[in-house]
Amino acid sequence: QVQLVESGGGLVQAGGSLRLSCLASGRTFSDYAMGWFRQTPGKEREFVANIDWTGGTTSYAHSVEGRFTTSRDNAKSTAYLQMNSLKPEDTAIYYCAASRVRFGPSADYFDSWGQGTQVTVSA
Predict the structure, then answer these.
(1) Is pLDDT above 90 for 1?
(2) CB-based contacts of 64-69 (< 8 A; 24+ apart in sequence)
């Protein structure tokens, strides 16, 4: 399995921006579609965004569409989640995930997960 490490989380005021990074190692990064999920205490993990193997196709949850952008740099084995116009309800632990075979919003499609990075948006 590919190993994933997220970074870039932190505390930001509402309306601000953060960029999360997900560095992959151990396998060929371009063999994996990538996804971003988030989770708050007591709730199920929620789909945020995903990007296919080449970066040509992306999709987003309705709650973040128009504010978040995912991208990837296969040469750097890194996926990104640019988060703009952040809202307090975006506060969560954000996880990146990798899928070898399937592309879609279901967490079940993903084989490997990072440890998560905390994003906190203050009002």
Answers:
(1) no
(2) 64/90
Cβ within 8 Å of residue 43, ≥6 positions away: none
Which DSSP string do the residues of 1-59 spell out, in sequence order? --EEEEE--EEEETT--EEEEEEEESS-GGG-EEEEEEE-TTS--EEEEEE-SSSS-EE
Query: Among residues of the chain, what percentage have pLDDT more than 90?
Result: 99
Look at the alpha carbons of 65, 55, 79, 110 in this order and tell me if their dihedral is positive or negative. positive
Q: For the sheet containing 18-25, what is the strand order?
A: 3-7, 18-25, 78-83, 68-73
Cα–Cα distance, 116 to 68 (Å, whole number):
17
Give CA–CA dist 56/85, Å, rounded.
24
Question: What is the average pLDDT score of the chain?
Answer: 97
pLDDT digits (tens, 9 = 90+) for 75-103: 999 999 999 999 999 999 999 999 999 99
Helix/strand/coil for 88: helix
